[in-house]
Amino acid sequence: TNPSGQWNSVDLSEAVIYAVDVGNPNVLSMSLQSTTFVQQLSDALAYAYDNGALPLAAAGNNNTTPIAYPAHYDKCMGVGATNNTDVRWPSSNFGPDLDVVAPGENVYSCFNASNWQYISGTSMATPHVAGLAGLIVSRNPGLTVPQVEAIIRNTAEDKGTAGFDNLY
Question: What is the mean pLDDT of the chain?
């Protein structure tokens, strides 16, 4: 982020490529959102995906469809949020590009680097899925990114209408 706390897609694209080239991550977790498609960021996330890192991003908190970018990019898993009763959190974005949901309401989290508070949103749900992806890879480092993605999707508890639905 820049000094005002905002992020831009060019810097994020460069950070993603740098992380993949230098750090060799298995998972990239992004708790941020935009309504704008940016080819450079789409390409950077595809580069990460194709080079062994699963990008995950918050779907957005506007109770609308489509989900926000970067979650909306093809090679990025979009993460929505549920509440403490495992029902869709009312402000979570939704739609056909939503990949999975995770707990995101009233998550006790670090805030402003020195304070802790309860926070809600898809940005709170995304790290849950990132942690799961990391655990999956730690148990079987030979898995490909599409395999990790498939394990997450295929082992998630089906919520809402049976089978895929736009809310979960």
Answer: 93
What confidence score (pLDDT) does residue 84 get?
92
Per-residue pLDDT, averaged over 30-43, amounts to 94
Torsion of CA 102, 24, 9, 111, to 10 degrees: 50
Taking a C-beta distance cutoff of 8 angstroms, is the pair 159, 82 a contact? yes
Angle, vertex CA 153, rays to CA 164 and CA 60, nearest 5: 75
Q: State residue 3's pLDDT score.
A: 46
Determine the residue type at 166. Answer: N
Give a three-class secondary structure readout of the chain: CCCCCCCCHHHHHHHHHHHHHHHCCCEEEECCCECCCCHHHHHHHHHHHHCCCEEEEECCCCCCCCCCECCCCCCCEEEEEECCCCCECCCCCCCCCCCEEEECCCEEEEECCCEEEEECCHHHHHHHHHHHHHHHHHHCCCCCHHHHHHHHHHHCCCCCCCCCCCCC
Claim: this prediction has a pTM higher than 0.90? yes
- Angle at CA 69, nearest 5°, toward 104 and 134? 55
